[in-house]
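User: Last request for today: this protein with zinc ion, please.
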Amino acid sequence: MAGERIAFRCSACGGATLGLLGGITRSADMLRVRCTCGESALDVKKKGNGGLHLSVPCVYCRDNHGFSLSLDAEREDNTVRLPCPFSNMDIAFIGNEESVTKELERTGEELMRVIRSFEGEELSDIQPSDADEGDVCDPAVYDTVNFLVRDLEAEGRLTCPCGEPKPELRFSDEGIQVFCTSCGASYTFYAKSGAMAESYLSLDSLELS
Ligand SMILES: [Zn+2]
Ligand SMILES: [Zn+2]
Ligand SMILES: [Zn+2]
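Assistant: Here's the final one, the structure of the complex with zinc ion:
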């Protein structure tokens, strides 16, 4: 396994990246292979039972998928192919340099065919649209909710079962979640647009539960 390469295609730019898998089997517990564009990374974690857990960028879903892998499984032709669970397209490979390079060439052509069959020209034409995802991560929404939460906190109008709320914010599927880092209680702002977030500004107290 020492000289084995791990390869994937970046979910943001479509570029192929090759990393060395060997290190993780010897000393490190975790390995991150990042695309040169910086927008996506493949993570490998060592599990207790000696297996590996992989988080792999998917060029078709623009998201990462999780895979579990045993280190010493018998492998046909020594190449492991990891398929996207939704499109069933191979998105990552483990094997020697020659075999993973070949797989990347094959799947690169496959990708171009898929893009063309959608009459598209680039990656974004086949990926889930920006409409939903972009809004969730709208920085204006975050700023508005953050402003409101800090304001309520400063005035003692943010309450929590633990009595000492330490609120933090994170993006969730629905919008933005405020959670207490002391006790885990939370409140979700169902806001995906600046306007939706602003409708919360009239809130004069907030109770995490
Ligand atoms: Zn990239
Ligand atoms: Zn996928
Ligand atoms: Zn709390």
